Amino acid sequence: MNPEIRPLVPEDLPRHCGRAAGERTVGLIGFVDGRFVAAGGLDYCESGEVIAWCKVTREARHHRIAFWRECRRVLEAAREAGHERVLAVASPIIPTAPAFLARLGFREVGTRYGMRLFAWEP
Prior knowledge:
Blueprint (H helix, E strand, L loop, with lengths): L3 E4 L4 H6 L6 E9 L2 E10 L5 E7 L7 H17 L5 E5 L6 H7 L3 E6 L2 E6 L2
Antiparallel strand pairs: 1-2, 2-3, 3-4, 5-7, 6-7
């Protein structure tokens, strides 16, 4: 079955991602047969930084094309909004995260909080 993808609403983050929404968080969330499979988006920080994030379940692997397409869609929205840089950290518990970020066009720029830091600059 194809995932149902819709814009995030504030209550999605604590319910499905275990975190609160930032002051300004935008993104998408996906479900399959009513079950949460993935969410991701951008956090706009007070510092002016734009941080990309995602939370995926194992089931999201079965929907790689949709997941990839929606990640590209979020980055395209960032480009259209005029963002010159989007940051992301690669979780050390997801070994494929650095390669995935690189395929999306991010490049490694250092570390933050002990994790590898990547930047996307359109």
